[in-house]
Design goal:
Radius of gyration: 43 Å
Family: Belongs to the TTC4 family.
Pfam families: Wheel
Largest sheet: 6 strands, mixed
CATH superfamily of one domain: Phosphatidylinositol 3-kinase Catalytic Subunit, Chain A, domain 1
Keywords: Repeat, TPR repeat
Distance between the termini: 133 Å
Organism: Clohesyomyces aquaticus
Number of strands: 8
Number of helices: 14
Helix content: 40-55%
GO molecular function: Hsp70 protein binding; Hsp90 protein binding
């Protein structure tokens, strides 16, 4: 006979007490529940190594320990497989770390098991020769795969080192030659890249990747050769032009001197109209100093055939000369001699003759002239002598 359940009885059944574990979960809000779930390895979305109260996450530590359970080969193979998974996902940093751990595991001495740690384990005899062979295979693969990670991360020298380690284990590893050649090419070490590529092709002459890379290396080398040729020709031309300029100065008896405090003249320089012809016209950067008023004018290219008067004609009148002291007829020009004295420069004398007199020298590629109003000349000369003797 079917029994009828009243509304009150249904409510009482629905409100019956939950099991202790479920009651504890129900008492927590959603945020706390998500935090607790995140500490369980199966549900983790971010790494939480605590138990929520500042203690150790036992479940996570146990899971970590499993990674190091087994023989060196088993541990290394586990890390290698994880590295491969990351590499397939192009997670190069993570992949490299797993290959690092695999290689480190192969170097670790066997860990004796604590007899009190867990259930009794049945000892199994291990074929040491087969185990050593397997270790070598894993080591080779980890090195060549880590080389790929370093190549993708642009750690080219590390990539080359990993390829070298691979080839010490197996001199016929084509991938190691290919990746080493790629890294060398990225560093513009084209001879080394060509050598690695050729060695790989000697082993596998039909390897399409190596054939393509070989073409790239040749193209890059041709480009580098052309750049080097242009640079060499430019350096040779500059050296020839410099030698021609020195010959031109020497033939005109124009002394020059360089100091450690050379001014920045940008592109202004002593030069020949025809850089390879010592008989062509010379020009000089010239600074006209107005020492009585702490002013100056700069003439970027003053031809050896030009006279000072020609430049003063278009420079004067000076915008700051309120007293109109600076006129072509109203100024005198002086240059310091190599001996530390002064000579008066004729305004109608060509610059080449002034410089070729042997009394003055061109210092740091710059000619300096002092322009002084005639009425102030004697006083300025006296001040100059006092500064020299001070």
């Amino acid at each position: 006979m079917a029994s009828n359940i009243t509304n009150n009885e249904a409510q009482q059944q629905a409100s019956a007490s939950l099991p202790p574990g479920m009651a504890e979960v129900k008492a927590k809000n959603a945020d706390d529940l998500f935090k607790e779930m995140n500490r369980l390895p199966l549900f983790m979305t971010t790494l939480d190594e605590t138990d929520g109260d500042g203690g150790e996450n036992v479940a996570l530590e146990a899971l970590k320990a499993l990674a190091f359970e087994g023989t060196r080969t088993e541990v290394a193979e586990n890390f290698r497989q994880q590295g491969n998974e990351c590499a397939r996902a192009k997670q190069w940093t993570d992949a490299k770390e797993f290959y690092d751990k695999a290689l480190a595991a192969l170097k670790q001495p066997p860990q004796p098991r604590d007899p009190e740690d867990g259930p009794k384990v049945v000892e199994v005899e291990v074929d040491e020769e087969a185990e050593a062979k397997k270790e070598k295979e894993i080591e080779e693969v980890c090195f060549v795969n880590r080389a790929l990670c370093n190549l993708e991360k642009k750690n080219y020298r590390s990539c080359i080192q990993d390829c070298a380690s691979t080839l010490r284990l197996n001199p016929r590893n084509v991938k190691a030659f290919y990746r080493s050649a790629q890294a060398c090419l990225s560093l513009d070490k084209t001879p080394e890249a060509r050598d690695a590529c050729a060695r790989g092709l000697n082993i596998d002459s039909s390897n399409k990747a190596l054939q393509t890379l070989s073409t790239k290396i040749t193209t890059r080398q041709d480009y580098l050769d052309s750049v080097a040729k242009v640079r060499r020709e430019r350096e040779e031309r500059v050296a020839s032009e410099k030698a021609t300029l020195q010959l031109a100065l020497k033939s005109r008896s124009i002394p020059t001197r360089s100091t450690e405090a050379a001014p920045d003249l940008e592109d202004a320089t002593v030069k020949l109209a025809e850089p390879m012809d010592p008989s062509s016209t010379l020009s000089f950067p010239v600074i006209l100093l107005y020492p009585c008023h702490s002013q100056s004018d700069f003439v970027k290219a003053f031809s050896e055939k030009e006279k000072l008067q020609e430049h003063l004609d278009y420079i004067f009148p000076l915008p700051w000369d309120q007293e109109h002291e600076y006129t072509v007829e109203g100024v005198e020009v002086y240059m310091e001699t190599a001996a530390g004295g002064l000579i008066k420069v004729g305004k109608k004398m060509a610059l080449g003759k002034v410089l070729g007199s042997g009394k003055v020298e061109v210092v740091d590629g710059l000619v300096k002239m002092n322009v002084v109003p005639k009425g102030r000349a004697s006083g300025w000369i006296e001040e100059f002598k006092q500064r020299k003797t001070a």
